[in-house]
Specification:
- The chain has 306 residues and is α/β, with parallel strands linked by helices.
- The protein folds into two domains: 153 residues, Vaccinia Virus protein VP39 (Rossmann fold, 3-Layer(aba) Sandwich); 99 residues, Adenine-specific Methyltransferase, Domain 2 (Adenine-specific Methyltransferase, domain 2, Orthogonal Bundle).
- Helices cover 29% and strands 12% of the residues.
- The protein contains ten helices and seven strands.
- The chain has a seven-stranded mixed beta sheet, sandwiched between helices.
- Helix 2 links the parallel strand 1 and strand 2.
- Helix 4 packs across helix 6 and helix 5 crosses helix 6.
- The chain is elongated.
Amino acid sequence: MTKPVLKWAGGKRQLLDEIYARFPESYDRYHEPMFGGGALFFDLEPGDGTINDTNPRLVNFYEKVRDSPEELIEQCRSFEHPENEPDPSREFSDSDRKGKDVEQYYYQQRALFNRRPYGDEYDELEEAALLLYLNRTCYNGLYRENRSGGFNVPIGRYSNPDWVRADEVRSASEAVQNTEILNRDFEYIIDRAEEGDLVYLDPPYEPMSATEYFTSYSKEGFGRKDQERMVEVAKELDENGVYVILSNSGVTYNMYDEVGFRVEVEGATRSINSDGTNRGEVNEIIATNVPPDDCQKAGQRGLAGF
């Protein structure tokens, strides 16, 4: 069992038992097309398959975790406390791209991290290290991008933040060694997953009411049409003999029920939200095409794939 390296909104650590209860007794490869923080993957530690995310900087991070864990750790160790003064030897020590004064080390590193979306030259290893640094020092562990793709979360309040995460990086590196890491639209899974494989889908959640809105974890966003595409992808995977487990907000219940999936409501606690009053239990669904009689029995957690 490996701990996730990153904090990530929508993480499934609190739903792991409920998700495992829908796992088939046996399956071939494991795929996670919308990876994020990868709580289920790292808890499961599957031996083969694919992980994917549309965020290129997140994908770059996991590639460096897999291929260059020690270099990543050393890069993170070179960073300073987020409330320190900016490093005068680096760019953005006085002002950011918009001319706003930079008075803390955190905001200099945020500007450096945003080289890629603004068309500047960037180093992939430094970008990966900065993603981890900002994730552990930004406000409430949020990941949010503006319409240009720039990460724009302000500094958080931490007395002793750990942005190196050496043990977690090394453990995660071992967990992803035999996993293909992709940066594509989630529909890639139709061609990649084969009969007998298991796919876990965890999209950005459909808002629970008309007054809610999607948090922009990437500049592209994930809207109603994407939710409808995901239903069609899940249906096609089912027709191809692929096991599918999917989590989403409760308002999508009928979407999956209507295509023949077994859908059940579960409770989950929001731990990352920019509005503190919005942290609490919300209704979520878990939908699956795995027949109840084919689900894992108690005590089988993590054994599939051997």
